Amino acid sequence: MPDRYYEIEGGKPLRGRVRVSGAKNAATKQIVASLLTNEPVVLHNVPRIGDTAVTLDLCSTVGMRYEWDAARPGVVTLQTPSIDTHELPLSFSGLNRIPILLLGPLLHRYGQAIVPMLGGDAIGRRPVDFHVKALQALGAEITFEQGRYHACADRLQGAVIDLPYPSVGATENALFAAVLAEGTTLIRNAAVEPEVIDQVMLLQKMGAIIFVDTDRTLVVEGVERLHGAEHTVINDRNEAASFAIAGIITGGDVLVEGAEQANMLTFLNKLRQVGAGFEFVPDGIRFFHPDRPLSPIALETDVHPGFMTDWQQPFVMLMTQADGLSVVHETVYERRFGYTETLVQMGAEIQLFRQCLGEKPCRFKSRDFPHSCIIKGPTPLHAADVTIPDLRAGFSYLIAAAVADGVSRIHGVQYVERGYSQILEKFQGLGANIELRGDAYSNLQIR
Ligand code: EPU
Questions:
Q1: Predicted confidence (pLDDT) per residue in 59-100, tens digit
Q2: 126 CA → ligand 1 middle, Å
Q3: Residues labelled catalytic
Q4: Which ligand 1 atom sits closest to the C-alpha of 132?
Q5: Composition of the chain by helix, strand, coil, percent to 5
Q6: pLDDT at 334 over 90
Q7: How far apart are the first and last CA of the chain?
Q8: Whose CA is nearest to atom 2 of ligand 1?
């Protein structure tokens, strides 16, 4: 069966308005958070993407019921009257990063949990050792057998959890486990990404007590039970940054509705250093090309409030069109430059380095990972047939094709549809010459 692919004719400036959806990396976790109570949790601004569909299916296997509101797009009511099973099917192994986050809810409501190992993008090893140690600190017994984690606990007990690195997923896992544990839990060196704070806000609405202290410490006072709540998922700052760059790099002018300055400060600072144009308007941020050459830049990714690793790929694309040498040091994932090989095939000049080309302390120093790069711009890009390796790389390929001379074919579109809602329609709405080709139903994951 022929796969689905996008065909894009490049060279047209993208112009107009695009509305960002709710954040994938907040909504999926909030679906899991709803398992912590037997009462209804109503979420607004939930994106209709592959990852939310998989997460809803996953949670349904343990007893969650959900209903999309036909009259209000993006509103879903979730309720789990009882947990029917503590065992997640192995078929969810490898689909996304969510199954491990069910450990806490299942342990609280069932006393046992069996979850498959995780998937995610091909951007590094992505282990879950911090998750496992956090749950063990709270009193869970965990073993790994035949591709699955087996956990059990009578009642989780508050503890001090020292995360070796401010991992988003491990922080959320520890939070879900700590909110109903007996006593107080300190999560030190926690992630404080806006998406994590959005979980804290939902959990607080559900009755949890969580203090966001100084120095990345979350102090959680366990409560006996959580109740239903209604919450609007934060907007997707990755999607906002992606469309911002799509507008700038094509020489266009795009108003990104729902882009929030507070969650994009570092991104906006970097855009200003590059010389790209942006302007704040009441319902979002307008991004445009300044009609003069863009300046090169030195950039290092980091945990919040640093420059997000998920902004790195579109920014590298932007740098291929800046006038001079740019340097990017990736400090969050050890292998997040694999996608640049395709950009080089399309005409970009990007060289990878194993050294740390930056000043930030980096876990990958002297560890032989190609985690820095130098980009020489500006280089004209030419069309190509490419296959998407992971979500954020996928959007970069779309932007590359939109800039390139000729017609590109982009395969593996299920990766971008996993994380970007109505991406085809949004590009078309900005005037891109893009069409879906191939078998419309093969590898389709969105429901
Ligand atoms: N890490 C460990 N051990 C662990 C957990 C993490 O060594 O137990 C390491 C990772 O290997 C990585 C670093 O810590 O080097 C940071 O990983 P983190 O746990 O923060 O990432 P994550 O929770 O798996 C989420 C997002 C990612 C985003 C990162 C960083 C979701 C579903 N994914 O991943 O988003 O890049 O935080 O902000 O929330 C994406 O949306 O495309 C994406 C990859």
A1: 999 999 999 999 999 999 999 999 999 999 888 877 778 999
A2: 7
A3: 121
A4: 8
A5: 30, 25, 45
A6: yes
A7: 21
A8: 127
